[in-house]
Fold:
Amino acid sequence: MLNNRSATLEVLPELPVDRAGWVTRMSCTLWGHHVDNHDFLAAGKPFDRTCRCGAAYLPLDGSSTRVRHTLSCFLGHHTYQRLVDRDGYHEYVCVQCGHPLLFAADSDPYADSALFNKKVRYLCGLFGHHVSRVTNRNGFVEHACGCGHTFLRPESEITVIRHPARCVVAGHWITFLVARSGYAEYLCLHCGHPFCFAAPGSGRAAAAHP
Structure:
C-alpha cells in the first residue's frame, strides 16, 4: 500500500505557486494600486492602464480607482517638471507619482528650473493647507496652498483644507476628470486632490524621465 501511494505521488504534477504575484495583489488590496508615470510612459497604448498586480485600472468612464501613497515621494521628495502656464500660475507635475504643484507666476521660486526636487511640507499635512482660490475649471473651484498643493472642490469660499482620515490611512479614491497637456488628470472623490498621469508618446510627458 505504501509503495502504491509513493508511486501516485511521484506522478502528480507540481503546481506553480506565484508567490510574488499573490503578494502584489494582496498589497494592492490592502493599500491601493501603485501608480508611476515612468511605467505609464513605457506602456503600449495611451491611457491603457494596467497595475503591476495585473488589474486594469484608472479607466476613463468615471468609475473610481483606489491608489496608494507613493512613499518614496512622501518621505523623500517629489521631482517636478513644468506642465503648463495658466491663469497667471506655473503648474508642475511630479515625474513619478503625478502630484501637481501650482505657484503664482510672479512669486514662483522654481520659475527658472526645468526639473527640481521638493519635499512635502509636513506641517500642511498635519494642520491643514491654507488655500486661496485660483480659478473655476471642469465644474470645480481650484484652490492652492502656499506650499503648491492644489485641490479641486465644489466650495468657492474655503480657507483651510485637510485630508480626511480615509485618504491619509488608505490612499485616494480617484476618478478621471480631463485629458490635458499629454496627461490624464484624476481627482480624489473625498479630498479633491488631483493627480496627472502621463500618456505614452506625448512630447511633454516624455521629458518626465530624469
Summary: The two ends are 66 Å apart (CA to CA). Residues 1-12, 203-210 have pLDDT under 50 and may be disordered.
